Amino acid sequence: MLTGCAGQPATVPQGARPNVIFIFSDDLGIGDLSCYGASKISTPNIDRLASQGQRFTDAYATSATSTPSRFGLLTGMYPWRLPNTQIAPGNSELIIDTACYTLADALHAAGYATGAVGKWHLGLGPAGGTDFNVEIRPRAYDIGFDYEYLIPATVDRVPCVFVENGRVVGLDPDDPIEVNYDHKVGDWPTGAENPELLKLRPSHGHDNTIVNGISRIGWMTGGRSALWVDEGIADTIALKATQFIARHRDEPFFLYMGTNDVHVPRVPHPRFAGKSGMGTRGDVILQLDWTVGEVMRTLDSLGLAENTLVIFTSDNGPAIDDGYQDEAFMRLGGHTPSGVYRGGKYSLYEAGTRVPLLVRWPAVVPRGEQPALFSQIDVYRSLATLVGAELPEGAAPDSHDHLPELLGVGHADREYVIQQNRQNTLAILKDGWKYFEPSDKQSYEYRKSVELGNAPVPQLYRVSKDPCERRDVAAQYPEIVEKLAAELERVKNER
Ligand code: NG6
Ligand code: CA
């Protein structure tokens, strides 16, 4: 029998209403944390989370990029079922239909105060593009969040402003914001025209409007008083998150927190700059660790740690050079963000979606390692079960209830895991085998630095024996190829 930390039989508690904090780090690899074996960098706060709860070894994000991964988490639906769910621009409309019953809706209906803080990347506003000069609707509020303090897309995309409850923070109405992803607007310099103005140069893309000496994706002008300072973003996210926790200390709350770290551009606060010895990518891992520490410290100081379920994970696998000349490759010094796995962010190979996942809830979750095959798509229904939420017909169609596994008191593998790369090519992992559907899309991205996993013929890897996906055995096992191809087709046609 499995036992909990106090030697009690470990069971899923009935009617428990813990606070829930879901921390989505960005582009963090399974090899990036000392609790997952990294030896060149130390992440003491995240390690403490791991040692006080469950450390998952076989957990997967829904997709190898941010927008679809986040879409899957909040909707419980595979993003590839819908068009327009890949990497969203900074002026994208809200890509989750307001009619969709989201995880936030479910927790809200169950009596939770719900907040979204930090990286959003699911679009804001109506079809046709966001107007950042008015109160933006629809927004996170319209899909279940009572409170939101958001980076609209990514920090390498314009507009470089925070949006709080639909309003750009610090906006001067006399200096309206204009954003465009097709052509230049306004007269601010761009990375392409004025590279001499840059403090951080792009390695690919990222040569449009310069804000704070960094050229971004997309063009913007206006909103000078609202522009974020890159060095302060982690502090702002930590502050807004901990303020939300403190405001709701006396009622159950759900905090969905997206860090900017360790996404590009990697611009650490001076407290962390140069501290990792691994360049800025390492420095922002330390900054991420600090952020998690701030959340934990706040829970401790408010006496909330015992009854708060903290879930820490990443939205997709790691990128090393992701578009800026930040010396990330050169300064790795033997550090391996992807661990032993093949690929990374964008890829259908394991490191694209195999991510760190830590779950701590001292009152219930035993300490230890969780080897069960787990997918973030199941967080929705697992949490819904935990809080006794009743879901309407059609909600979270791809999410399965794996609450015992999420809480570390059960160890059943998910029946299969679907993986998705940047071009929406899918793979299915089942019973230790992984089948990649054929794709005519390109095999590499960024001058061969990223292996996407696309190939015109089916691929098959026996990941139980070959976790590094070195040997494509499709030719040796045609019957398994056929079986998994059919299984993938079945999942695709489920709705
Ligand atoms: C890519 C960007 C990359 C990153 C990514 C989204 C270029 C060359 N690359 O298109 O830097 O922004 O989009 O990352 O522009 S994600 O983690 O939010 O999905
Ligand atoms: Ca990401």
Kindly summarize this structure in a few lines.
By secondary structure, the protein is of the alpha/beta class.
Number of helices: 9
Per DSSP E runs of 2 or more residues, the count of β-strands stands at 22
Low-confidence runs of at least 5 consecutive residues: 1-9
Distance between the termini: 38 Å
Radius of gyration: 21 Å
Percent helix range: 10-25%
Note the beta-strand portion.
Answer: 15-25%
Mean pLDDT metric: 96
Strand sequence of the main sheet, in spatial order?
7-6-5-4-12-1-13-14-2-15
Give the ligands present.
2-acetamido-2-deoxy-6-O-sulfo-beta-D-galactopyranose, calcium ion
Instruction: Describe the sheet with the most strands.
Output: 10 strands, mixed
Account of the protein in words:
With 495 residues, the protein is of the alpha/beta class. The chain is built from nine helices and 22 strands. The strands form six sheets. Strands 7-6-5-4-12-1-13-14-2-15 form a ten-stranded mixed sheet, with helices on both faces. A hairpin with a 5-residue loop joins strand 17 and strand 18 (426-430). Helix 1 crosses helix 5 (279-301) and helix 4 (233-247) packs parallel to helix 5 (279-301). The radius of gyration is 21 Å and the shape is globular. Mean pLDDT is 96; it is low at 1-9.
